[in-house]
Design the sequence.
């Protein structure tokens, strides 16, 4: 009886053990299906080869390239001073007629305006008076000299007479020179009218007078106003500022381009023709002047402009502009770092580049090395998957 009741115990244990082993085997069989797929670490994007092809993504090794470096600065359009005339009135008086209008082309010596002025009569009378004083002084010298030779006059009287003669002679020269300045225009002594002439060939760009306006003469000692500006617009200057750090890189003859807000899609091409020999003590900058052809007369004096000056060409480790993305204040590229589990791995890498350069290639200061494979097209897809 005792053996009969104990026989089933080993059988039950065996059954339980078999069930446990069977359950473990089932769990082991299901384990691979429950393991999650590997995920890319932070800063990496993994794509299948098909996704890379669908995105038309291009990858290229980082290599040295020629960099056409430029210096970017602001500038102001100005007229060529050598071909520009600034006209002031030499006499004080009233404008009685305007002969030349705005936009009109004139030749050197052509009349611009007529000014009625008492200065003309005064200048002529000053010459006559000075000449009369000179004659009187000369007669006095002759008399004093004759008296001195006859021992009837003193040497002091003769010396004083000679001094008066020299002063009278100087006064005649002064009066004649002033009259000669007025003779540069068409002077009518009878009507006391002065015709203001053009000093250069060109186009009338500015006029500050109207009939009936009183003008101040240059030689009157008062404040004078520029009445006409005459110049040519077919060739203009652009004056910019250079910092000391860029001074050694800019040379006379360096190519330059300029853009203005009035024509944002048009680029004007010129060259550097002068670099100042001194530094502005207030701004610590050096003036640079560029010359531009302006046949269409689109560039106007006093326009603000953005100037790019090309400097020495150099070879440097570089990437295309399309490879660099902006993520906030950071500049990044995506580098291909290999393949894993049938997927292509790309890693985001911060770089230091100079985006101010005009070249399609951007020199890389740090961040990547030569021969690393960088995404040059389609990088925007990778940034959206981060």
Sequence:
């Amino acid at each position: 009886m005792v053996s009969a009741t104990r026989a089933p115990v080993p059988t039950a244990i065996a059954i339980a053990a078999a069930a446990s082993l069977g359950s473990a085997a089932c769990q082991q069989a299901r384990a691979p299906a429950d393991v999650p797929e590997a995920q890319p670490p932070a800063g990496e994007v993994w794509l299948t080869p098909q996704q890379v092809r669908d995105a038309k993504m291009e990858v290229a090794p980082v290599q040295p390239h020629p960099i056409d470096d430029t210096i970017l600065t602001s500038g102001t359009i100005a007229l060529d001073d050598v071909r520009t005339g600034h006209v002031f009135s030499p006499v004080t008086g009233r404008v009685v007629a305007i002969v030349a209008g705005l936009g009109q082309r004139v030749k050197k010596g052509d009349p611009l305006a007529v000014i009625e002025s008492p200065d003309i009569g005064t200048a002529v009378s000053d010459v006559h008076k000075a000449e009369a004083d000179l004659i009187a002084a000369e007669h006095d010298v002759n008399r004093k000299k004759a008296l001195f030779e006859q021992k009837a006059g003193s040497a002091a009287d003769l010396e004083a007479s000679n001094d008066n003669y020299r002063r009278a002679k100087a006064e005649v020269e002064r009066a004649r020179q002033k009259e000669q300045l007025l003779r540069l225009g068409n002077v009518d002594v009878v009507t006391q009218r002065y015709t203001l002439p053009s000093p250069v060939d060109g186009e009338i760009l500015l006029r500050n007078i109207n009939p009936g306006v009183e003008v101040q003469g240059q030689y009157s000692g008062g404040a004078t106003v520029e009445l006409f500006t005459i110049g040519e617009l077919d060739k203009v200057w652009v004056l910019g500022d250079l910092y000391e750090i860029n001074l050694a890189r800019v040379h006379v003859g360096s190519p330059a381009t300029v853009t203005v807000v009035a024509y944002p899609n048009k680029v004007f091409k010129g060259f550097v023709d002068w670099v100042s020999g001194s530094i502005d003590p207030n701004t610590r900058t050096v003036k640079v002047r560029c010359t531009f052809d302006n046949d269409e007369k689109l560039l106007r004096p006093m326009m603000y402009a953005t100037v790019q000056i090309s400097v020495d060409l150099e070879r440097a480790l570089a990437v295309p502009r399309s490879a660099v993305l902006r993520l906030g204040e950071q500049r990044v590229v995506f580098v291909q770092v290999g393949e894993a589990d049938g997927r292509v791995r790309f890693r985001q890498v911060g770089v230091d580049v100079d985006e101010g350069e005009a070249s399609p290639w951007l020199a890389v200061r740090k961040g990547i090395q030569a021969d690393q494979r960088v995404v040059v097209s389609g990088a925007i897809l990778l940034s959206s998957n981060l």
